Amino acid sequence: MKRALTKIRTYFRTNYEVLAAAIIFIIVMAAGYEFHKTIILMLEFIVIMEVVKMISDFIKKEKLRLRFVIDIFIIFLIRDVIIYASHSNKDYFTILFLLFVIFVFFIFRILSIKYSPGVIKISKDTVIEYEDDRKSKKIKEDEKQIEKKLKK
Description:
By secondary structure, the protein is mainly alpha-helical. It has six helices and two strands. It has a two-stranded antiparallel ribbon. Helix 3 (35-61) packs antiparallel against helix 4 (66-86) and helix 4 (66-86) runs antiparallel to helix 5. It is extended, with a radius of gyration of 22 Å. The mean pLDDT is 78.
């Protein structure tokens, strides 16, 4: 029994998200809130966190990352789908349209990652990611070193 409790304790020490989600779920169940309304509020909170993250990143680096903007739109649209799906009179055309828009934003997100200026694709299986703050001269030197290693 002690061994099992120790494993559970170490698991929660490394995975705070599971513990936080369990606590939030217990609070929601104990308070008697409707679950879909709680999910909507949590998604709104995530949207606010992403906006603050985007603004903070913009202030620090003076660059606006497309990935953050797309993530905000995706989360916000998922929130709207949940709202429309939870109504008693469902408008299926609106829900399908929002799901289509979410699909399009997922495609944009994949393309923004694939063609990001912070990614160098060396081969089919090898990708190097770097921060946008690095100088291009340094990157070219790294590419030359990698090419030499690949030729050996």
